[in-house]
Amino acid sequence: MRKIYWRQFLLLSLILTILPSFFLIFTAICHTTQENTISHIYDQEKVFFDSPQTSSIQLFTVPPRYLVVPYQEFVIRTSITCRTFKLDNPAKDSTKFHPKYSKYLRGPFPYVLPYTNITYNDIENFYTNILVNKKRDTPIIQTSFANNITFENIPYIFQQGMWHPLGITSIQRTAILVPLQNREYNAKTFLFNMHAFARRQQLTYTIILIEQASPLGHRFNKGRLYNTAINYLEKQSLNITCLVLHDADLIPEDDGNFYTCETKYPKHTTSRVRELNNKRGYIRYYEFLIGGVLLLTFDMYKTLNGFSNLYWGWGGEDDDLALRLIQQRMCIVRPIYELAIYTGLPHPRGPRNNARFGLLTWSTLRFHTDGYAQIESLTRIIDIHQTLTVTYLKLDVNPDKTLNKQSSMGNISSLLNTINVHMTSTIKTIIRTKTIKES
Ligand code: BGC
User: Fold this and answer.
1) Model pLDDT for residues 334-346, shown as the tens digit of each residue
2) What distances in angstroms separate CA 191 from CA 127, 249, 325, one per listed residue?
3) CA triple 179-388-269, angle to 5 deg
4) CB 3.0–4.6 Å: which of 48, 93, 114, 276 could bond 118 by disulfide?
5) What's the gap in Å between 355 CA and the centre of ligand 1?
6) How far is CA 10 from the centre of its chain?
7) Where in the cell is it found (predicted)?
8) Whose CA is nearest to atom 10 of ligand 1?
9) Angle at alpha carbon of residue 391, lines to 372 and 133, rounded to 5°
10) How confident is the model at residue 170 (pLDDT cuts 50, 70, 90)?
11) Ligand 1: distance of its center to the CA of 319 in Å?
12) Where exactly are the structural domains of the chain?
């Protein structure tokens, strides 16, 4: 009995010492392999130009400069706000007028919720009436479709596709771009208020609604809508200098939230949002968020290769753009919290894009092959309609009916599968845990 007991004891101690050692050695090997894979990816530019033959990743034909900004940096930089950058401080120069000096600024923006049966024609009539009556002391304001009208009659003129403040030249020529699908009432409320908002800032501006045609089964693809509309704009002779990418359900609450592009970096103005009729107060989203309202120049947009074209359904395309920003060593400028506030209009939520975390994982790989430069072959403008208050573009975002076209990165994906799970879950953590409620 005793013999057997000692044998068992020896065997057990052997197992207890050997197994953890094996485990440790095994983990160390795995870790090193993974580190190697990752550093190959991060140093990929170097690998390609210095010693292509020695690189294991070379087998998988990753084109040069794809992963220069790596996921690692994204993980470390959970903040994308520029740390040292200050918003432009414009001189008071009437040849290049900045909204900061507008005499019409009133602080809080008294937006109006129109009756639900408001039509685009009503909005057109409203602003045309103001225009026609601009010389009268008290403008005739039609109130049959909206109560509590508090908008002033600010002297404006419509010329060659843009609204101009009379007597001054705005610092920028601004296009406010609003993608939508089945959001009619939001779009009208937005349009009705945004003209008043832009005029109080004395912008030279135009508003473009970009509607996705909705055949059955087509999920919303905001990236394609923006890419197509911006591509369209670039071909017009409007000489736009500032793009405002704007969700249809967001109404700015303060006149001091200037809709001007900054010279160096994109500007994200949706720092806090409170839902209409919801007593929860403002929600402050995660720092990494650049969705909602983003202002940037054509050049900045091109540097980022615009949006990815691969995000179908709600969510992710804006986070993908944020990754592109990091990839391009850009950061985001934000107005102070007191001003960067919005009301969120209610709307039904479309289906979520469950593939978004996977797509985000490989976002930097697709940078050159998936974006603004590729948009022309992917979508078709099926209707263009212009009135005084809006340019309306209707798009078929998937004319060849092949949803979720994959890029040619399949083989790379298999190589990188080992780190996929880890990356995806970290991205989820960053995106999900950083929503902070405020009162
Ligand atoms: C989505 C973004 C969205 C954000 C705020 C994230 O989880 O990926 O697309 O803008 O939530 O709602």
Assistant:
1) 999 899 999 999 8
2) 11, 11, 29
3) 40
4) 114
5) 13
6) 63
7) Membrane
8) 291
9) 145
10) very high
11) 7
12) 156-397
Say what the pLDDT of residue 340 is.
95
Tokens read off for 92: 């008071």
Nearest in space to 104 (alpha carbons), one of 276, 323, 256:
256
CB 207 within 8 A of CB 195: yes
Q: Is the pTM of this model over 0.70?
A: yes
Q: How many CA atoms lie within 13 A of 244 on its CB side?
A: 28
**What average pLDDT does range 214-236 have in this prediction?**
91
What CATH number has the domain spanning 156-397?
A: 3.90.550.10
Write the DSSP assignment of 120-188 as a string of letters.
Answer: HHHHHHHHHHHHHTTTSSS-----TTBSS-------EEEETTEEEETT--BSSEEEEEEEESS-HHHHH
pLDDT band at 138 (very low <50, low <70, confident <90, very high): low
The residue type found at 245 is L
Shortest-distance Cα residue to atom 2 of ligand 1: 315
Give me the pLDDT at residue 210, please: 98
Residue 132 has pLDDT above 80, yes or no: no
> If you write DSSP's letter for every residue of 289-325 in order, what string do you get?
---SEEEE-HHHHHHTTSS-S---SBSSHHHHHHHHH
Buried/exposed code over 235-263 (b: 16+ C-beta within 10 A; e: otherwise):
eeebebbbbbbbbbbbbbbbbbbbbbbbe
Long-range contacts made by residues 377-380, C-beta under 8 angstroms, separation at least 24?
A: 378/224, 378/309, 378/405, 379/224, 379/227, 379/228
Structure tokens at 364: 């930097």
* Angle between helices 317-327 and 222-235 in degrees, nearest 10: 60
Mean pLDDT score, 28-48: 34
At residue 436, the pLDDT reads: 44
Adjacent-strand bridge partners of 396: 380
pLDDT higher than 50, residue 96:
yes
Q: Whose CA is nearest to atom 3 of ligand 1?
A: 315
> Residue 71 Cα, ligand 1 centroid: separation in angstroms?
19
Q: Environment class of residue 6 by beta-carbon count within 10 Å: exposed (0-12), middle (13-18) or buried (19+)?
A: exposed
List phi, psi (to 5°) of 352: -70, 155
Nearest in space to 331 (alpha carbons), one of 85, 76, 82: 82
In 3D, which of 165, 158, 162 has the Cα closest to residue 97? 165
The single residue listed with the structure tokens 């040069």 is 64
Q: What's the whole-number average pLDDT of the chain?
A: 79
Ligand 1 atom closest to Cα of 356?
8
* 173, β-bridge pairs: 204
